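Hi V.,

Quick status before I head out on leave. The structure for the redesign project is tokenized and pasted below; the design run finished overnight.
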């Protein structure tokens, strides 16, 4: 019955959240491809105004994440998450109508607000249905939506710019925002009929997907999977208090913030590849795809190994060591093939480790569902600080090699590795205490993942 339940989740919940996350990141990241068209010229952007437009989205993103996850515990996810997706698709498409810098900043800020509920909400949904031993691989599958969106956005942009430039009096970048926004809206509308609500609920897609016995099993197996802790108040405010007062929440926040800072290259990768001088705009956009496609495969391999071996820390720190090596190669050589190869290293290393951090945080901060909801939201909020300041690593005067940016991203990779080692050591100590309590009480303990 448990295998059947997980299989149903893998065929319903996972595809829906994956498709929405794919479009979530594509709608957020298409500004990177628009930069290679006439975007900056048409809007009159100068200096670091493009960097500000990239950064400001994350300000709105940070402001609404925690309130959204607190709301999510009280509403139907099958309606709330798709509704947010439909709103952000309209806001993203509205970017095609801006004519100046101030209009762009306004649209990007509100896009961050309406996109904020999705990632922490989707991840909370996964952690409500999947156990810890199942979660890393599913998180990596979900996270591949981000990586593949970045890969295919270059290919899509190349086709749109080549085929629709000037059609109906619109620039290619305007068509890009319109087409991707319309696709997001259609997928979000359809997802309302498939997405299940929480375990045990008789609404949403779950009412026709799962039998009553499967719903009971879904609740029971998540209860059994919690780390051993005294019985606690299940209210959302108490969950918030537990998350805020647990030092592990803040260590995970620093770990993920450093990780996000290390992949600050993401919104500038088409510009980095352009600096390699590989050829035309179309060739540049096509060449942005392979590192992300390989990064997706690496993410799956790391997540599969992490779940299979029930280990988190080394599956984060080792890929980040590889990413740091990629940044070092980029700084150390002028050889274009070597620098392009290095991009495979830092993209694969950063994205391969990122999904495991989310999984580790959710399975550690899970003494109550409310704590997990608030804790994962706080970790994700704090991590967005890296996305707010990292665009400023890429100063126009440092093009095309962006050496200071590469050195900063290498440094943040090392910070993330250090926090990972600290957390692994701390949780090993906590597990020894839980095992000692098990010996004293005779009650089997559920340990923290290492």
């Amino acid at each position: 019955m448990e295998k059947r339940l997980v299989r149903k989740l893998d065929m319903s919940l996972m595809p829906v959240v994956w498709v929405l996350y794919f479009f979530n990141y594509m709608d957020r990241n298409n500004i990177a491809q628009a930069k290679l068209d006439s975007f900056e010229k048409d809007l009159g952007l100068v200096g670091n105004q493009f960097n500000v437009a990239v950064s400001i989205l994350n300000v709105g993103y940070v402001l609404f994440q925690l309130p959204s996850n607190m709301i999510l515990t009280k509403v139907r996810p099958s309606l709330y998450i798709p509704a947010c997706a439909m709103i952000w698709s309209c806001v993203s498409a509205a970017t095609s109508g801006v004519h100046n810098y101030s209009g762009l900043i306004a649209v990007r800020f509100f896009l961050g607000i309406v996109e904020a509920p999705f990632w922490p909400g989707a991840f909370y949904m996964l952690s409500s249905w999947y156990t810890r031993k199942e979660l890393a691989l599913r998180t990596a599958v979900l996270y591949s939506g981000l990586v593949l969106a970045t890969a295919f956005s270059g290919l899509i942009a190349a086709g749109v710019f080549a085929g629709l430039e000037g059609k109906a009096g619109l620039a290619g970048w305007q068509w890009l925002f319109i087409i991707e926004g319309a696709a997001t809206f259609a997928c979000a509308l359809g997802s309302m009929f498939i997405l299940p609500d929480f375990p045990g609920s008789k609404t949403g897609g779950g009412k026709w997907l799962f039998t009553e016995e499967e719903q009971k099993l879904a609740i029971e197996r998540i209860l059994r999977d919690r780390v051993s802790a005294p019985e606690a108040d299940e209210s959302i405010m108490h969950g918030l208090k537990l998350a805020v007062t647990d030092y592990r929440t803040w260590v995970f926040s620093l770990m993920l913030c450093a990780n996000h800072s290390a992949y600050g290259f993401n919104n500038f990768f088409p510009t980095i590849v352009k600096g390699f001088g590989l050829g035309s705009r179309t060739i540049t956009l096509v060449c942005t795809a392979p590192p992300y496609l390989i990064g997706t495969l690496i993410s799956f391999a790391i997540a599969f190994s992490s779940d299979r071996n029930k280990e988190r820390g080394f599956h984060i720190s080792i890929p980040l060591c590889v990413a740091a090596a990629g940044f070092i190669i980029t700084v150390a050589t002028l050889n274009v093939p070597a620098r392009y190869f290095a991009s495979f290293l830092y993209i694969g290393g950063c994205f391969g480790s990122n999904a495991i951090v989310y999984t580790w945080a959710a399975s550690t901060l899970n003494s109550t569902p409310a704590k997990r909801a608030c804790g994962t939201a706080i970790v994700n909020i704090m991590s967005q600080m890296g996305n707010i300041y990292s665009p400023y690593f890429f100063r126009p005067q440092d093009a095309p090699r962006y050496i200071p940016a590469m050195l900063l991203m290498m440094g943040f990779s090392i910070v993330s590795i250090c926090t990972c080692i600290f957390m692994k050591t701390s949780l090993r100590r906590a597990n020894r205490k839980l095992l000692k309590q098990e010996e004293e009480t005779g009650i089997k303990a559920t340990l923290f993942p290492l």
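Above is the designed sequence. The chain has a mean pLDDT of 89.

G. will cover questions while I'm gone.

Best,
W.
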